[in-house]
């Protein structure tokens, strides 16, 4: 992403090597996808050969949603990305209790590695729950969604693959919605106004989302499909 440039270019260049070494020291679990820089780009379909479909959750937090999805859908292969090691460890505890074989976690800063992390057409679905809105104006450059990120999602999604996003932050939600509406390779999977307020049956909700809804906050959901 062009947010990381100038004096940090060298940091980006060596990031894959540093994060792979650090993760090897931090985690000893079959659910952590350990990789070396030479392994990039990663191919989830080869890593999960027995699964009919693949789903990527970006920013899985404490792992409540991923835990529920993994246990309910053994036919789907799941990959989760999270940058905080504490959250990875909490999610690992959930996965070890389940004793499943259809999920791998990646601990990394996606902003520093998205360009060549996954091969083309790696996923059938991408899930992003409650991306950080960075509400202060001086922090807007830290927001995850941009036209460049949408281009990357087009690259890693198969044709007809979808992106599902939930957010309780009104301004950021509609900013993301406009980005998708303006992108030539995405079309809404929902009827106008291209989002819903109610969670569809069977959709897992994170602890954060449950608390927000219980407090009366509106949570909106969108779905866009690669065309």
From TrEMBL:
InterPro entries to which the protein is assigned, alphabetical: SAM-dependent_MTases_sf (IPR029063), tRNA_(Gua-N-7)_MeTrfase_Trmb (IPR003358), tRNA_methyltr_TrmB_bact (IPR055361)
Enzyme Commission identifier(s): 2.1.1.33
Statement: the UniProt record of this protein carries the keyword GTP-binding: no
Coiled-coil regions listed: none
Domain of life: Bacteria
Keywords for the protein's UniProt record, in alphabetical order: Methyltransferase, S-adenosyl-L-methionine, Transferase, tRNA processing
UniProt: substrate binding residues: 168
Reactions performed catalytically: guanosine(46) in tRNA + S-adenosyl-L-methionine = N(7)-methylguanosine(46) in tRNA + S-adenosyl-L-homocysteine
GO molecular-function terms, A-Z: tRNA (guanine(46)-N7)-methyltransferase activity
GO cellular component, one term: tRNA methyltransferase complex
Binding site for S-adenosyl-L-methionine: 57, 82, 109, 132
Pathway given in the UniProt record: tRNA modification; N(7)-methylguanine-tRNA biosynthesis
Role this protein plays: Catalyzes the formation of N(7)-methylguanine at position 46 (m7G46) in tRNA.
Family according to the record: Belongs to the class I-like SAM-binding methyltransferase superfamily. TrmB family.
Protein name as catalogued: tRNA (guanine-N(7)-)-methyltransferase
Organism of this sequence: candidate division LCP-89 bacterium B3_LCP
